Amino acid sequence: MDATSLAEAAGLRSRARQLAAHNTKLQRDAELAEELNARLAEETAQLQAQLRSSRQALEQARAAAEELEDLKAVAKGLEEENGELRRHARHMEKEQRSLCLRAEGLQEENQRLIAEGQGLREQIQAQAARVADLEAQLCRGTALLSARDAALAQAGRRAQELAVALEEYDRAVQELRLETMQLRQQLGRMRDAWAMRPWCPLDQATDITATAAPSPVREGARGSLWVPHSR
Q1: What is the pLDDT of residues 105-128, one digit of tens each?
Q2: Do 29 and 176 meet the contact criterion of CB atoms below 8 Å apart?
Q3: Distance from the CA of 50 to the CA of which of 90, 101, 116, 171 falls in 20 to 30 A?
Q4: Which 8-state DSSP code applies to residue 182?
Q5: If we measure between CA atoms, which residue out of 193, 155, 192 comes closest to residue 49?
Q6: What DSSP character marks residue 89?
């Protein structure tokens, strides 16, 4: 009986050491999962900041598009004004020809009117160039809006992928914590059962108790384990 008890006690001590080593490995895995969760949280915060920046840029682009629409309206008004000026210029040219036929003495006045007509033509050309520049700006604004929309869509897909990964890590950490709790409960029951045996030597019971007792550092690390909420 003594030899059997000693063999059984040695087996239990070996099993307790194995369980303690396994518990230590589980604790390290939990700490690694915690670090990974922290990195994922930081990356999620960065993506959210990028998303807010993209939204602000999109709002600015929309404001620019509205301003371009206003500029198009102004350009349209200028085109109408240019048409009126062209009609006025043609009328003045007819008037100049009529004045040339009516009298030689009005030649200087006709020359002045011709000079005014040339100035109007230059103004018309300048306005046409401005309208072309506004149309080019509108095209660039449209391309910028398309690029912003694509960036926002990509950021949204990345955020969804990160949310799925966080849920998977959450489940893994919960499983590790449950398994660790079960192992500690099993060690406690084995310790109590061993200590209640009347033939158990005091020094062996103390050895098993010290082996089964959780480390304060590990308990502290377990208490500070952060598990993200499922999204």
Answers
A1: 666 766 887 888 888 888 888 888
A2: yes
A3: 171
A4: H
A5: 155
A6: H
Q: How far apart are CA 197 and CA 200, in angstroms?
A: 5
pLDDT tens digit sequence for 177-211: 999 999 999 988 888 888 886 655 545 544 544 44
Say what the pLDDT of residue 110 is.
Answer: 66
Q: How far apart are CA 55 and CA 80, in angstroms?
A: 37
Q: Report the Cα 51 to chain-centroid distance in Å.
A: 4
The pLDDT mean for the chain works out to 78
Backbone φ and ψ of 196, nearest 5° = -80, -10
Query: Among 223, 218, 231, which Cα is nearest to 28's?
Result: 218
Q: Looking at residue 231, what DSSP letter applies?
A: -
Q: Pull the structure tokens for residue 149.
A: 């929309």
Of 134, 143, 145, the C-alpha closest to 62 is 145
What percent of the chain has pLDDT above 90?
6
Using H for helix, E for strand and C for coil, what is the string for 184-217?
A: HHHHHHHHHHHHCCCCCCHHHHHHHHHHHCCCHH
Task: Return the structure tokens found at 181.
Answer: 């709790």
| Distances, alpha carbon 165 to alpha carbons 33, 96, 188, in Å | 12, 82, 35
Whether the Cβ atoms of residue 120 and residue 89 lie closer than 8 Å to each other: yes
Instruction: Centre a 10 Å sphere on the Cβ of residue 126 and count the other Cβ atoms it contains.
Output: 11
Question: Exposed, middle or buried: residue 30 (CB in 10 Å: 0-12, 13-18, 19+)?
Answer: buried
Calculate the CA 93 to chain-centre distance. Answer: 64
